[in-house]
Specification:
7-stranded mixed beta sheet; two-stranded antiparallel sheet; 10% strand; 520 residues; alpha/beta
């Protein structure tokens, strides 16, 4: 008789050598060799092998878990390893001793650990994936930023070096130490060549103390002086006995320092002829004393030169002290470096300031002007120069012209099909989500009510222009309702819902109202 006897099932019980969590081994097609069985029918018990110490009932030989294979992770329970596959046994060969005879072909089952090694989790034995950080290391940051830092360092060093080298030449306007176009260093050098020393002071008391019969006191900007400074300079004018040159004084400064003189507007010519018997002016000849103030006085003994329209731009007033005088110079042009070589400017400036052995050049500074009373607070707009407003206006005009220029080139609108058709439900849902995210219940309620009003107006015969008129629409809608107690005005023109539930209820009520009007 030819057949394949089924292997007996293992008897129930607890085998001490078998792992209770290990599923029994299911043979695969590759684990079984084809055989031709001609054995005598009888109980199918596998013969004991030589390794069996004690004969007993036939149980599948327990196998020990060899552990995780090299290169694979072992994360599940221990399983029985499949038998190695080999060449098929020759026909008629009996099964190996100790091996149960195979039965019908079962479905091939892969053991849990026989997965593709390429699908095994990365990270080695623990099954954890390696995490690669994308943060830059300090070395990478330095490699990226060192070029920019080096360039900034070079620029900073160059700026500091240039500022240090040129700091001695740059001062202020009418400063005898400044070689700029508006400085007066050239005049100071010419005075030095003629033996006249120039002393720069920034304090009124120091200037008044240095003034004397052998000095010429020049006040660069008298209008910047405060009341204490004007008093100090006035005492020097009256008591020193020397010459005082005031550059373009006006207003309060002129009234206190030279009360006998008054201003008469501006001279519109730049270069003027002397037109006076003053030896200093006649020697210098034509000079650039114009484009400044003109003066007039009734004080006897005054000499006026370089007149423009009958009023002098250079006025010499006698002092109350013997030998002293006060010179009012309407323009500072003859003192500047850029104008010194023009006409007779250098000669006139040298004679006005070089008549005494020493020049005390007084440059008023903010530190020398104490506050007189409470300081007026100014806003940021008050500090912006007026020219900036005109520049801003010009920018707005240019932007408007550019907008008009570009707008006329756009032409009419052209309709174009969308590359992707979007369903109306998706658009509505997306808009609703945006309203919900921003809690815009007012906007959502307004849209719902406006749309309902337009549809209801079409149903009840109200013109579209009157669809949003409460009296017209509510009266027409109420006439179509059977429920006269419903407040149509509040529903269509009411306040904003307090919460989301009220908004949903409003939408439901609007739908119900439209259905009732449509079916009435």
């Amino acid at each position: 008789m030819t057949g394949h006897p089924q292997p007996p099932a293992p008897p129930p019980g607890n085998d001490p050598d078998q792992d209770p969590g290990t599923p029994p081994h299911t043979p695969r097609d590759t684990d079984r060799a084809p055989t031709t069985d001609t054995a005598t029918p009888g109980p199918a018990h596998p013969a004991p092998t030589q390794d069996t110490a004690t004969p007993g009932p036939a149980h599948p030989a327990p196998t020990q878990d060899p552990g995780p294979r090299p290169g694979r992770s072992h994360t599940g329970p221990a399983t029985t390893a499949p038998a190695p596959t080999g060449a098929p046994a020759p026909a008629g060969a009996a099964p190996a001793p100790g091996t149960p005879e195979p039965g019908p072909d079962p479905a091939p089952v892969s053991p849990p650990h026989a997965a593709d090694p390429a699908q095994a989790p990365a990270g080695g034995r623990g099954g954890r994936a390696a995490v690669t950080s994308t943060a830059l290391t300090p070395a990478q940051l330095w490699a990226r930023a060192r070029g920019l830092l080096l360039a900034l360092t070079v620029l900073l060093v160059a700026a500091v070096a240039l500022a240090g080298l040129r700091a001695g030449d740059h001062h202020g306007r009418l400063d005898p130490r400044s070689a700029d176009r508006d400085g007066s260093r050239a005049l100071a050098q010419l005075l030095k060549q003629r033996g006249v020393t120039t002393r720069v002071v920034t304090n009124a008391d120091e200037a008044a103390a240095a003034a004397g019969p052998r000095t010429t006191l020049l006040v660069a900007d008298p209008d910047l002086l405060g009341a204490p400074q004007r008093r100090a300079i006035r005492s020097a004018i009256d008591l020193s006995g020397g010459r005082t040159v005031l550059v373009a004084p006006t207003g309060t400064a002129l009234a206190e320092l030279a009360p006998a003189a008054r201003t008469k507007g501006f001279a519109h010519q730049r270069d003027l002829d002397p037109g006076c018997p003053l030896p200093t002016a006649t020697t210098a000849g034509r000079a650039a004393t114009g484009d400044g103030l003109r003066y007039t006085t009734t004080l006897p003994g005054t000499v006026g030169c370089y007149s423009s329209d009958g009023h002098p731009t250079l006025l010499v007033l006698p002092s109350t002290t013997r030998g002293g005088d006060t010179v009012l110079l309407g323009s500072e042009r003859i003192l500047l470096n850029r104008r010194l070589t023009e006409e007779g400017n250098a000669s006139l400036a040298l004679q006005l300031l070089g008549s005494r052995p020493e020049v005390v050049w007084y440059l008023p500074t903010p530190a020398d002007m104490p506050a007189e009373g409470a300081t007026e607070e100014k806003s940021l707009l008050d500090l912006v120069p007026s020219g900036w407003y005109w520049a801003l206006l010009q920018l707005f005009a240019a932007a408007a012209l550019a907008a008009l220029w570009r707008a006329r080139r756009l032409g009419p609108l052209v309709t174009e099909d969308l590359p992707v058709a979007i369903r109306a439900s998706e658009t509505t849902e997306g808009r609703a989500r945006l309203y919900r995210r921003t809690a815009a219940r007012d906007r959502a309620a307004t849209v719902l009510r406006a749309a309902s009003r337009e549809r209801l107006a079409a149903l009840v015969g109200v013109p579209p222009a009157r669809a949003h008129d409460p009296e017209t629409l509510t009266s027409a809608v109420s006439a179509r309702l059977t429920d006269t107690g419903r407040d149509v005005t509040t529903l269509l023109f009411g306040p904003t819902p307090a919460d989301d539930a009220a908004l949903v209820a409003l939408a439901d009520h609007l739908d119900a109202l439209e259905r009732e009007v449509r079916t009435s």
